[in-house]
Design brief:
Oligomer: single chain
Largest sheet: 8 strands, mixed
Number of helices: 12
Number of strands: 8
Number of domains: 2
Order of helices and strands: HHHHHHEHHEHHEEEEEHEH
Radius of gyration: 23 Å
Length: about 350
């Protein structure tokens, strides 16, 4: 058995399944390695041995872990999408969330992709349909991860195109597949605390924006309740037909935001969605270990979508009570700081 040939074929098989459509990979190999089509196919079929320099060049281009490809399954490697400083803050922010969809974007319908989202906070995808929350998040992102020293939050329209682009990605590649989400009763608290802190440091350019932001959160809660009742995925009215959304409630085990993509070709695990915690693994044993844990957690959770009426009502009663307390606290702080 030609071990080198087997490894090379495995390497290119992963590239084709994870990153490309049709025969695009052969043309990228030709361009990257500056070789002809026949020579590219010989490398892909294992007929021509590749030097280490070529393998590293392709792995870097496709963000493919050589450890995951060539080491045993006991060795788990992670991909970390470090911020590229040459990009603007907003480009980095948008690119971050596109990484969620990249593994499933080019898969065919026969793959039957299943997604599980274990939410420490509310899945961030829900925020993108709400202008003032989205603008607030962009401002926080710029303040924490870029060169903006002074935090100034105001009513701007410059992010509308980007927000729409992300919503389309979500509808096509996240909500367009079978999705299960596990929520917890405190998943909006981090957003509340960020807003309260921004009031105390007078980060809002004017007090009117704070009220618009509060109204947006109230609309978000109504939206969450609506999709829980119907069990149909949507982002502020943009429904995905024929695709069920199952939502469970569990206040145990929700330490991180964890997303898993599961299909015949792709078994990917995402931990976190914000720098510096965001990491990605395509290691199958690690995926299975994580999936088994999530499945056990699901069995110990309460279904609140569709038929889970009683628990759903209690869940949203707490959410509405927390929101009321939050708004009262903001109002008192505004009397002091604005």
């Amino acid at each position: 058995m030609n071990t080198n040939a087997d490894y090379q074929k495995k390497f290119f098989d992963i590239l084709e399944k994870r990153n490309t459509k049709d025969h695009k990979v052969v043309y990228e190999v030709m361009e990257l390695l500056d070789i002809k089509k026949g020579a590219a196919y010989k490398r892909m079929n294992g007929d021509t041995s590749m030097p280490v320099s070529e393998i590293i060049k392709l792995a870097d281009h496709y963000n493919l872990s050589l450890d995951a490809t060539f080491r045993s399954d006991k060795y788990i490697s992670f991909f970390h999408p470090f911020v590229h400083r040459e990009k603007s803050s907003l480009d980095s922010f948008i690119d971050q969330y596109k990484r969620f969809f990249k593994p499933i974007k080019n898969l065919g319908p026969s793959e039957e992709v299943e997604l599980s989202y274990l939410a420490n906070e509310l899945p961030i995808f829900y925020y993108f349909g709400h202008k003032y929350i989205f603008n607030f998040m962009i401002s926080v992102w710029k303040h924490l991860h870029w060169d903006d020293v002074n935090m100034v939050i105001s009513d701007v329209n410059e992010y509308e195109r980007e927000a729409k682009e992300i919503r389309n990605e979500i509808l096509d590649n996240y909500f367009g597949n079978k999705v299960t989400e596990i929520w917890n009763s405190n998943m909006l608290n981090n957003l509340y605390q960020q807003i309260i802190f921004c009031v105390t440091i007078r980060a809002f350019k004017n007090a009117d924006y704070i009220q618009l932001l509060i109204n947006d959160i109230e609309n978000l809660i109504l939206h969450l309740k609506n999709i829980s009742v119907t069990g149909v995925k949507s982002i502020k009215g943009d429904k995905v037909e024929g695709s069920e959304l199952k939502i469970y409630l569990n206040d145990f085990g929700n330490y991180l935001n964890i997303v898993q993509f599961n299909s015949k070709s792709i078994k990917s695990t995402f931990l976190g969605y914000d720098y510096p915690q965001f990491i990605v693994s395509h290691n199958k044993p690690f995926f299975k270990f994580s999936k088994d844990w999530i499945d056990r957690l699901k069995k110990r959770s309460v279904l609140i979508s569709s038929e889970g009426y009683q628990y759903r009502e209690l869940f949203f009663l707490k959410m509405e009570t927390d929101f009321k307390y939050f708004t009262e606290r903001v109002k008192k702080l505004m009397e002091v700081y604005y």
